Amino acid sequence: MEEHMAGKRQITTMCPMNCLPTQCGMTIEVEENRLLSLKGDQHNPDSQGFLCMRGWATQEIFENPKRLLRPLRRVGQRGKESFEPCSWDEAYAMIVDAIQQTRPERVGLWRGHGIGTTGPIGHRLVSRFGLLGGFQQWSSAIVCWAMGGYGLGLTGVVKTNTKEDMAANSRTIVLWGATLASQPDLAPRLVEARKRGASVIQIDTRRTEASRHADDVLLLRPGSDAALALAMAQVILEEGLYDRAFIEHHTLGFMPFAASVQTCTPQWASAITGIEPERIRDLARCYATQTPAVIVLGGSSMFKHQYGWEPSRAISCLPALTGQLGIAGGGLGQRHGASPESTGYADVLADVTPKMPAKAAIPSHMASITEAITSGQLDVLFLFGTNMLSSFADTNELACGLERIRLIVSYDLFLNATSRRCADLVLPATAWLEDIGLKETATHIYLMERALAPAGECRSLTTILRELAQQLAVEGFFPWWNEEDFVNALLAAQKTADGEPLTVAELRRCGGYWQKNGLSHIAYQDHLFDTPSQKIEFWSERALRSGLSPLPSYTVPASEKYPLRFCQGRTLTAFHAFFDEGQALPTLALANREPQLWIHPQDAHKRHIASGTSIVIANQRGQFEAKAHVTDAILAGVVWMRDGWSGVNRVTSGAPIVSATASTVIPGAPGGQAAYDAWVEVYVKEA
């Protein structure tokens, strides 16, 4: 190991952040087990040298005084940061003893988006450990992109065209809730498309970094996206701008859909969205006639409200109405949680028979998970790379439930709000340069070499799970020789020119880049869609059987007594609650000193609030403190904050968006997200 790590070396790797579908390449220089430098990889076919602040800041993980370097166990009662060092043997003994004293179905595994669990290695191994051990495990997609994918799945449009296709072929580009904070690699492609003459339209609840790339910006009220889409459909139908041949051959339920949107006029939608009727008509006409037109959907924030499945359900009908599916420059653009038609990783869970009876499983349904925790159904909970109190809606209820769990184990790079308050055992995680890994974009698979030996007593997730599986007699957990052999198993679905499975050795020979087999930049050229009928389903029997509207719909949100609609999203200076809410890395901490609430000048003036004023955001559920940022980049009546601050979800609803039963009807897209709705009041903080 020491010989392998000696000498100055340059290595091509990937940023460890989980900004799917963006993944940015890095070139690093290391010497004597130290990271010397880090920069964007100019040759990476996706990022082409770009690296944002979040990527640059990851070099500050190493030699960081806040980094966890040895196991810690709690001293005294939960609630305070009070830990003492312990050995790995003692840590394993605590875990094994706690699991052996209960039943497997009372053990839960919650993996977040944190470092060490985002790639296919950690993700698949946690799943394998849970399935073979008979433990509860859930999909972290329910805090992120899955609700949007659920609505798209009901219609049947889950695959995407690529950003390269958009850059080369789209005449109209609609950025619907899509931000460059989530996918910065869109920016150069937008520039390419505009140089070619393409028009870019942005639809969002606030002006973002994407606004400067847009020819037109439409700000709408939060949660009203489905109403806008239905009104666009009404205009397209009324003015005869739809594609009759495509609808006749490739869709189901057009007639009831057309009848249902007759009343969804621009005037109707204007009262809901706040967008003028004529602007809605112009948007619909532009989308239907200035073709090919692509819609780039946001991955998460626009689906977080009580009826979060409705926007993507309604929006995905627009390319079907206009025949924009299966063509260059059309369809849906790249999106978190989606991919174009291609071959990805091999299924390394195919040999697994789940040990837990189906009736004992708690579904990947946030409200059900919270209820299970609060009702005492779990005795042991593993938190892999997650600050659970910052990611779940209604964290007040969750925090009370966590107190009932006998043993909570956190595996991470740094302490965070959840581990400080609730964890009984904290395990130090390896960082990305201390493990072998893979990253996947829409078009490529990338190798992440192990460049450094683990710091301190840090152990990889693979090592920990293998050792726990051995002590718990979880048979068949790791049937590979070593980690590289496991990576080879993941790569085996990719075939080289001579028909042999792709291996790590071959991927190294290719410089660490691999374009996926079977890649098509244009989705659905065969016009076979992702529904039981293989047609676009304007009318969905699956939705009807699940207790949802079978037709695309807009539901008026339940009103609350508080006047301001609270929303959250992402910025280029932070990502969820990574790195202790951004505070562990100096560069990110400087850019994210404290929670900051965007508020419109009208709303601020009424409350005697100026930029920089210390404020309290409150409703019937709870409150938290922040500083005000007064800006007209947001609508009056709406306030906005970046996600990831542990206090944010004290005011959010936590109600299920769809039932636990309905949440399972779309393969690969669990509809288990809870609502992050909140109506609040904002006050000046008393001195």
From TrEMBL:
Residues 8-66 form the 4Fe-4S Mo/W bis-MGD-type domain. The keyword Iron applies. It comes from the Bacteria. The keyword Iron-sulfur applies. Keywords: Iron, Iron-sulfur, Metal-binding. One of its GO terms (molecular function) is molybdopterin cofactor binding. Belongs to the prokaryotic molybdopterin-containing oxidoreductase family. This is 4Fe-4S Mo/W bis-MGD-type domain-containing protein. It comes from Ktedonosporobacter rubrisoli.
